[in-house]
Amino acid sequence: MNSALLISTAVLALAVGSFINVLIYRLPLRLGLVWPNSQCPECHTAILWRDNIPLLGWLHRRGRCRACHGWISLRYPIVEAASAMAAVIVVLEFGFGPAGLSALVLSAWLLLLAGIDQDTRFLPDCLTISGLWVGLLLSTLYLHTSPTEAITGAAGGYLLLATLNAGYRGLRGRDGMGGGDFKLLAMLGAWLGLSALPMILLIAAVAGSLWALAALVRGQININDALPFGPWLAMAGWITLVWGHDWSIF
Predict the structure, then answer these.
(1) d(CA 76, CA 233)
(2) pLDDT digits over 92-151, tens only?
(3) How far apart are CA 188 and CA 157, in angstroms?
């Protein structure tokens, strides 16, 4: 594929990643998308436009506010870089046809959900439920799965995690995950089909467990801390979207 086209895709995706950062912060707080202007989280000084340039602005300021030199979260460049890398990989895998464009939409949707859950331990219904319906509608075009697979995937994804959580609650007397996780897996089932769910759960469970174990060993978390599962489901769903069709074992 033309390298100039890939570079243009990456630049545009950086801008999309910047907007995703805005949504990650503002949606849970029910703030407007345009007003107030972006501000330093420490001193609340408005951030200059040149410091808001995706990725480059953060790197130029070395993650510090120009006014108070307070720390600006590493989440901002990570989300922007992840958006660019995901977009380039999707375009290389699917091209710019309907399947590629829908995969770009799902990539951005999952990145937004992962960021919100990581920050707030909350997966908004306005994103998971609307994402589920978009997946069901797109299945009629047979881009990533069939309508039958999408419907059974949505129902199966929700019921599978709800059942596992009910069993955990019966054994431990408390929930092991939130209802947002059920809806996110249902959304992924609607986009990718029932047959994709085993791979998604396997990748999410293994990756999440390894990260939690490493964080526990380093003393970053305690054994009873509640950890977000949404980011791992989102990552696993994206991996399955891009490469799942090559892993026939599932």
Answers:
(1) 20
(2) 999 999 999 999 999 999 999 999 999 999 999 999 999 999 999 999 999 999 999 999
(3) 8
Q: Which residues contact 231 (CB under 8 A, 6 or more apart)?
A: 114, 115, 117, 118
Q: Number of C-alpha atoms within 13 angstroms, CB side, residue 146?
A: 3
Is the whole model's pTM more than 0.70, yes or no? yes
**Cα 211 from chain centre:** 17
Q: How far apart are CA 226 and CA 230, in angstroms?
A: 12
Cis before 36? omega within 30: yes
**Residue by residue, what is the 3-state secondary structure of the chain?**
CCHHHHHHHHHHHHHHHHHHHHHHHHHHHCCCCCCCCCECCCCCCECCHHHHCCCHHHHHCCCECCCCCCECCCHHHHHHHHHHHHHHHHHHHHCCCHHHHHHHHHHHHHHHHHHHHHHHCCCCHHHHHHHHHHHHHHHCCCCCCCHHHHHHHHHHHHHHHHHHHHHHHHHHCCCCCCHHHHHHHHHHHHHHCHHHHHHHHHHHHHHHHHHHHHHHHCCCCCCCCCCCCHHHHHHHHHHHHHHHHHCCCC
Residue with tokens 């340039």: 53
**Token pair belonging to 94:** 């699917």
